[in-house]
Amino acid sequence: MMLPDNKILAAVDIGSNSIHIVIARVVKGSVQIINSHRERTQLALGLGEELLLTNAAMQRGWECLQRMAKLLSDAQPDQVRAVATYALRAAHNRDVFLEQAEALLGYSIEVIAGREEARLIFQAIAHTEKIERESLVFDIGGGSTELAAGVGFDPQFRASCAMGCVNYREQFFSKGFTREDFAQANRAALQSLEAYLPQLGRREWHSVYATSGSAKALAQAAMQDEGTDASVSLQQLLSLREKIIAHNGVSWLGELGISDSRTLLVPGGLAIMIACMQCLTIDRIYYRDVALREGVLYEMLEQMRHPNIRVRTRKSMQSRYSTDTAHAERVTDTVRAILQRVPAAWLGSKDDVHEILYEAAHLHEVGLQISAGGLQKHSAYILASSDLPGYNEDQQLLLASLVGAHRKKIRLDDLPKLRIIEPPALLRLIIVLRLAIIFNITRWPIDLAYVELSVKPDGLHIVVDEKLIATQQLLEADLQRESDLLAAVNFNLIIR
User: In the 8-state DSSP scheme, what is residue 2?
Assistant: First the structure.
């Protein structure tokens, strides 16, 4: 697909330490950065064990986004994607921040999962480096470290560890920079990485790349006058650690051109990088000046070429779990037919949410590979726990919630509170999926021309023609049972 030159795209990266914005234009099927801006906001500072954003941190973030909004004043919604990472993934009060943040920025903000963040960072590297042999990419952020490994553009391994230069500063380097401080930080980082040794240990990497501000500062401090290839060895990092311990301070790093705001974060990032290299037997890493925001831009570009990455994700899941794709397609078609017959206002949800409903119809039986008993629970667990490219955290949770409630009793207390859909609309989408599955329960095509659906003040009415009942003898009984189940959640399904 040919892409229009000069189309403007923008990515906003709301990180734990800084907020970045990059603006690019499409040039011959690639992106050309034309403007970028970064502000240090340290959202993760003070997050603490209670995982609450401080008022001061939120205020810093809001003021920054208000300023950045001016750079996006002429952009259309499809030209801008704003993503948030660890601090907002972890914070229990994130909705308080996000509501005001979206109002100030003028665009919706997605909280993306750590593994999705890792995938996007890998994409940023893959678009700037030719990854033809197995390579590793890691990014030390303010609150988390993302790792991704693979060949080409799609990493086969993605992970996120809750260790970053801001939270490590608070945990280990708030009072000093002693040898024991570094030892404690090193042990904590190694323990975080232990779980990934079966997948990443004893591998011979063709190349190892590190991205973003922490890696840049560490490479700058460690190399000094020793090299120009933007690479740094484990021995150089160990020497840097010894120098910080000898000074019991980091102020001298300013002499190397590292900003005052970054110097205090260097020890935490250093401890994490050393642990990564020791744990995964890495002797040398290469710093590259790309990060999540560039990965988001390339993802937007890819979606312009291939509009729906979720379709690729779905097909991959269907293949992996050997689902009955013909049946899934019939259920999805029935969902579409039902949506066409009910008023849009009754659903009260956005088109993007409907797309997730369609994917739920396609994927509701992935749990059969575990057991038919408790199918809905097994399917929901798989979808909630898997890497699903194309989904942010709320979207993935919505997908899992729809599937998890597709049969048996609906437990309203188990349904999540989501920013992308109101509770009444969520319940109605669940009901649409349940009805579509009931209409296809025999796994044979069904003619919905014999079914009337209408929304009335007293509930959802369904009239089934006798000709259909004659061929689907259990349909009437199944619908009546569904009516009884929905009555328990105060929803009137009236069968006539």
Answer: P
- CA–chain centroid gap for 373, Å, is 30
Place of tokens 């996007």: 120
Instruction: Identify the residue whose tokens are 């973030």.
Output: 61
Match 């929901």 to its residue by tokens.
380
Point out the least confidently predicted range of 304-308, 427-431, 456-460. 304-308
Cα-Cα-Cα-Cα torsion 398, 357, 314, 479, nearest 10 degrees, comes to: 110
Whether 104 and 150 share a structural domain = no
For 41-106, strand residue ranges (E) read: 80-84
Residue 173, pLDDT above cutoff 50: yes
Tell me how far CA of residue 158 lies from CA of 114, 123, 139, 149, 212, in angstroms. 8, 12, 12, 7, 17
Pair 141, 188 in one domain: yes
Given the DSSP bridges, would you call strands 207-211 and 284-288 parallel, antiparallel or unpaired?
Answer: parallel
Distance separating alpha carbons of residues 6 and 10, to the nearest angstrom: 13
Q: How many domains does the chain have?
A: 3
Rounded CA separation 121/296 (Å): 8
134 and 99 in a common domain: no
Mean pLDDT across the chain, nearest whole number?
A: 89
pLDDT of 264-295, one tens digit each? 899 999 999 999 999 999 999 999 988 999 99
Give the residue from 3, 153, 13, 5 showing the smallest Cα distance to 80. 13
Last residue within a domain, chosen from 278, 305, 332: 305
Q: Which residue has the higher pLDDT, 255 or 324?
A: 324
List all residues 6 or more positions away from 15 whose beta carbon is below 8 Å from its beta carbon. 43, 84, 85, 86, 87, 141, 142, 292
Residues 214 and 335 in one domain: no
Do 334 and 376 fall within a single domain? yes
CB 137 within 8 A of CB 149: yes
pLDDT tens by residue, 182-215: 999 999 999 999 989 888 877 888 999 999 888 8
Within-domain flag for 388: yes
Q: What are phi and psi of 139, to 5 degrees?
A: -135, 115
Tell whether 345 and 281 lie within a shared domain.
no
d(CA 148, CA 138): 6
Rounded to 5 degrees, what are φ and ψ at 318?
Answer: -65, -40
Out of 171-175, 307-311, 380-384, least confident range: 307-311
The model's pLDDT over 308-367, given as tens digits with 9 standing for 90+, comes to 788 889 999 999 999 999 999 999 999 999 999 988 888 877 768 999 999 999 999 999
Full domain range(s) for residue 405: 309-495
- For the record, the structure tokens of 34 come out as 């034309």
